[in-house]
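Good morning,

Attaching, inline, the backbone tokens for the sequence recovery test we're adding to the shared suite. The designed sequence is right after.
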């Protein structure tokens, strides 16, 4: 592939509750890095406290990561554009739709990672993959197709999609930002979710899969191994559902152990799992924020 200035560009978004998960993610990338490429990391700050930001910075090597902190308001100045879906996901899930507009416009590639991940191989292997002229690359979601009763797109028939159309997970996306802007994807996806909000249980993911149906590159499933799986050779582990920071985590125990392996290498080394009540309170808070924004529009 073409020279990309020997730098890898990654974007993620994080609130204060998941600051320690971001630290583990970054440490896993650092530990498994083989080459000497600089990693330009853009962190969208959704209410991170100063102490948390300092701990994240102190947990990783400045020789590996070049950190750029961006406020949520800097990335999305007009939040009224965001769909107020009925899910318990925070509004920051829509950040990935704006990435091509806030990174340097000369970049030809950018990698988005959810904060609830750890990387178990050299991230450069993913960065260097041939995207075959596709605007994005991702991994098939555990629901598999748009017609799945779990996840998927419940109104796929009305949208003209075939039942066997594959459905990808938006937690890891390799993006061509130039093509993205050329195709006006941010506006198209937001419009799609706004017009179909009653069906958008996984809001940003819904819009991405509708607008980009059959137009994305399928990656090896190991690049997004869900915590519900038993894959013994994952490249990226994705803690969908209950996170390993909660005592109620009951998914792949080996994956949980790997998470804490990396976490112990950060400034959160003494952390112990917390009550599931915190998770439930966070979900309730996310729904209340959306309801409040709907009333104030």
């Amino acid at each position: 592939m073409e020279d990309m200035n020997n730098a890898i560009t990654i974007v993620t978004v994080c609130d204060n509750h998941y600051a320690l998960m971001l630290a583990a993610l970054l440490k896993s990338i650092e530990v498994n890095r083989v080459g000497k490429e600089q990693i330009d990391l853009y962190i969208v700050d959704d209410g991170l406290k100063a102490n948390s930001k300092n701990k994240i910075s102190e947990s990783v090597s400045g020789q590996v990561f070049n950190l750029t902190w961006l406020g949520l308001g800097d990335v999305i100045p007009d939040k009224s554009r965001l769909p107020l879906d009925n899910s318990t996901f925070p509004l920051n899930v829509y950040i990935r739709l704006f990435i091509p507009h806030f990174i340097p416009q000369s970049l030809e590639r950018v990698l988005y990672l959810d904060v609830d991940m750890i990387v178990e191989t050299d991230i450069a292997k993913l960065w260097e993959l041939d995207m075959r002229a596709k605007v994005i690359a991702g991994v098939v979601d555990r629901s598999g197709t748009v017609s799945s009763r779990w996840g998927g797109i419940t109104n796929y028939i009305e949208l003209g999609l075939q039942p066997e159309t594959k459905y990808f997970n938006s937690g890891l996306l390799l993006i061509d930002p130039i093509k993205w802007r050329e195709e006006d994807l941010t506006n198209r996806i937001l419009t799609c979710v706004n017009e179909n909000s009653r069906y958008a249980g996984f809001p940003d993911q819904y819009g991405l899969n509708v607008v980009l149906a059959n137009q994305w590159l399928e990656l090896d499933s190991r690049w997004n191994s869900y915590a519900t799986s038993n894959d013994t050779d994952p490249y990226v582990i994705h803690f969908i559902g209950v996170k390993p920071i909660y005592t109620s985590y009951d998914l792949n125990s080996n994956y949980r152990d790997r998470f804490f392996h990396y976490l112990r290498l950060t400034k959160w080394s003494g952390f112990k799992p917390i009550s599931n009540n915190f998770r439930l309170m966070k979900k309730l808070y996310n729904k209340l924020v959306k309801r409040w924004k709907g009333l104030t529009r």
